[in-house]
Design brief:
Pfam families: NADHdh. By secondary structure, the protein is mainly α. The chain is built from eight helices and no strands. α1 packs antiparallel against α2, α2 packs parallel to α8 and α5 packs antiparallel against α6.
């Protein structure tokens, strides 16, 4: 789980450098937008990752998945699950959380990219979204738990289900204004994620 969060932080540098390296005003503005948004979603995402770790008493993904036998974490920590998905959407520069690529700055980070460079950047967004959807399975959806099918098949089915929802929402939700996105991250998501961690901690202490 620590590794996953470290890779997430590295995305900040990758997107910003894509905007800075083009030596263009619009792309640079897009890169700095992403940095500002990263601060707004990274802390809530980190606290969302803490909740299943507290419940399982471990940072190992396998042990977190095993701790959900009988009851998936998404059932009793839905706020952490929702904040996690929003964070995944944010660091994938996806849907309503993609003002770093918006038309008001001529495409932002993408404004000076073309050909293979543009293809790699767009493919990276899909890869990050898919990785985030896959990581949600052992964290909140019981890993490979499920009837009839083998464990790997359930992991695949759950990953595809989460990814389908994220892709579908891209066309259903409008893009947030940069300042509104940051306000939601700091004022709503962060306190909600911390409150979820507190509830999980109390439950774990009560069981102990």
């Amino acid at each position: 789980m620590v590794w996953f969060n470290a890779v997430d932080v590295m995305v900040w540098a990758l997107v910003w450098l894509a905007g800075w390296g083009a030596n263009s005003t619009h792309s640079l503005v897009g890169g700095y937008r992403f940095l500002a948004h990263g601060l707004a979603y990274e802390l809530p995402l980190m606290f969302a990752l803490v909740a299943p770790a507290i419940a399982a008493g471990s940072l190992r993904v396998g042990e977190v998945a095993a701790a959900q036998e009988g009851l998936w974490f998404v059932v009793w920590m839905p706020v952490a699950f929702l904040v996690y998905l929003i964070g995944v959407t944010g660091f994938s520069v996806w849907g309503p959380f993609a003002p770093a690529l918006s038309a008001d700055i001529a495409g932002g980070v993408l404004s000076e990219l073309s050909g293979l460079d543009r293809l790699v950047f767009l493919a990276g967004r899909y890869a990050l979204l898919a990785a985030g959807a896959a990581f949600a399975v052992p964290l909140f959806l019981g890993g490979g738990a499920g009837p009839v099918l083998p464990g790997w098949a359930w992991v695949l089915v759950k990953t595809v289900a989460v990814l389908t929802v994220l892709v579908w929402l891209r066309r259903k939700l409008p893009m947030f204004r940069p300042d509104r996105f940051m306000e939601i991250g700091w004022v709503v998501l962060l306190p909600a994620a911390v409150a979820q961690d507190l509830v999980v901690s109390l439950v774990v202490v009560g069981k102990g």
